[in-house]
Design goal:
single chain, mainly alpha, 22 helices
């Protein structure tokens, strides 16, 4: 009977282990069933509370505490600023100006697409919003010049993902709230990596479209460039005001978000005159819906993260990662792989709240600066935005480009390779991220 006793003990241990970590199993089950992320996290958190023996009153308490932070006020303001500038007709003005500068070159429209995405990203702070706003303009323009529709859509989808790297970035605000690092330092650290990723996408697009007969645009005259610059001036000034004010110490990143809203309203109503008073209701409703979605995800993800931390699951997983090796290069590769996989299924906000309690102790043990880590982890999530099967930018791009998901999944491969090469450089060459924060004295 002794073997039977050992078998029963083994079953009991396995069942107890499953109960202890049941919330993890159910979370992936819900995601696989295509249940919205916020709902999946909320239900999973309630299961975790029950299994862990916690009081259900912790659910609303932790939710409120997680979103009741001053730094997170930047999220609805930046979302509103992006919505205002989208209605203000900024997309076409940025496109016209970029086209007059580099449109006459062989790689002109490829460069225009990436440059405009970077500028728009510096206003909206959101990858999917950038693709949605620019897709109906840039994709037809590239196709008209002779570029393949699939390559054009893939390039725009990948370039739009730069929106969470180029400041101001909502993902950076969330990361800062999770780790306690400076939002301003993260914004500084994201500039050079964002430009690097954009340059890698231009190279990838040129390689992917080699041999394509492209119709060259006529070179713009100095007068045409000046007119286009004058028309786009107020749009180009917005990121300068936001970032200049932050780095100049005039206002905090959260206050900068409020300034961006006021500036956007002024430009949209009085300068460009594209926003009319009767449209303001729709602008505010769109921004409110987007903000509520983000904050709901943050709130439920925070409960889930609290359970993982309190129950000791996060500490056990951190110890498990460190037990694999003490080699910094190897551990960073493992962390990048984990976040790349997470990016295929989760948005950056959810992934940060779920994974950072596990990863932060590991990074501290390796001596990795949390600001540097925030950048390369965010680059992982940017790549995840265009990685099948759940890359949000892919679906938004398909809708704008009028192609199937299967087609864009084939065309996105060169950009995934370019993004991963950039990711490795940003991960292992720390000055790429840390040069500007150190220059501004933020670290």
């Amino acid at each position: 009977h002794q073997p039977d006793l050992h078998m029963q003990q083994g079953y009991a241990f396995a069942f107890g282990l499953f109960l202890q970590n049941a919330h993890i199993f159910f979370f992936f089950l819900f995601v696989f069933l295509n249940i919205p992320i916020a709902v999946s996290l909320g239900i999973t958190a309630m299961i975790g509370l029950y299994v862990g023996g916690f009081q259900f009153s912790m659910f609303p308490n932790v939710m409120y505490a997680s979103i009741g932070k001053f730094a997170l006020l930047a999220i609805p303001f930046f979302v509103l600023a992006g919505s205002i500038m989208e209605y203000a007709g900024i997309s076409q003005r940025l496109l016209t100006f970029a086209r007059t500068c580099v449109g006459h070159r062989k790689s002109g429209m490829i460069s225009v697409t990436v440059i405009v995405c970077c500028f728009f990203a510096a206003i909206s702070g959101s990858g999917p919003a950038t693709v949605a706003a620019l897709g109906t303009i840039l994709i037809p323009a590239m196709v008209h010049q002779g570029y393949d529709r699939g390559i054009s859509t893939a390039l725009l989808s990948a370039s739009g993902a730069i929106g969470i790297i180029i400041p101001p970035s909502i993902a950076f605000v969330v990361y800062a709230s999770c780790t306690g690092v400076s939002v301003g330092a993260l914004f500084s650290a994201g500039i050079i990596p964002g430009i690097l990723v954009g340059a890698s996408y231009i190279i990838a697009a040129l390689i992917a479209s080699r041999g394509t007969e492209v119709e060259m645009l006529p070179k713009a005259s100095a007068k045409e460039r000046f007119i286009a610059f004058k028309d786009a001036f107020w749009a180009l000034l917005m990121p300068v005001i936001i970032l200049g004010g932050i780095y100049g110490g005039v206002f905090t990143p959260t206050e900068a978000a409020g300034v961006a809203v006021i500036y956007g309203l002024f430009v949209g109503i009085f300068i460009y005159k594209e926003i009319h008073m009767k449209e303001l209701y729709k602008v505010f409703v769109d921004a409110a819906v987007s903000s509520a979605t983000i904050m709901f995800i943050i709130a439920t993800a925070a409960v889930y993260a609290w359970i993982m931390t309190t129950s000791g699951v996060a500490a056990n997983l951190s110890a498990a990662i460190l037990s694999i090796s003490q080699n910094k290069i190897l551990i960073l590769i493992i962390i990048n792989i984990v976040f790349l996989i997470a990016g295929c299924f989760l948005d950056a906000n959810s992934a940060f709240y779920i994974l950072l309690p596990i990863i932060t102790p590991v990074l501290g043990n390796l001596g990795v600066d949390l600001i540097h880590a925030g950048v390369f982890l965010t680059v992982n999530m940017a790549i995840g935005l265009v990685t099948p099967p759940v890359g949000i930018n892919l679906y938004v791009g398909c809708k704008s480009g009028g192609i199937t998901v299967a087609e864009i999944c084939r065309k996105i491969i060169p950009f995934l390779i370019a993004g991963i090469i950039s990711l490795l450089l940003i991960t292992y060459v720390e000055p790429i991220s840390m040069f500007l924060p150190r220059m501004f004295g933020q670290v």
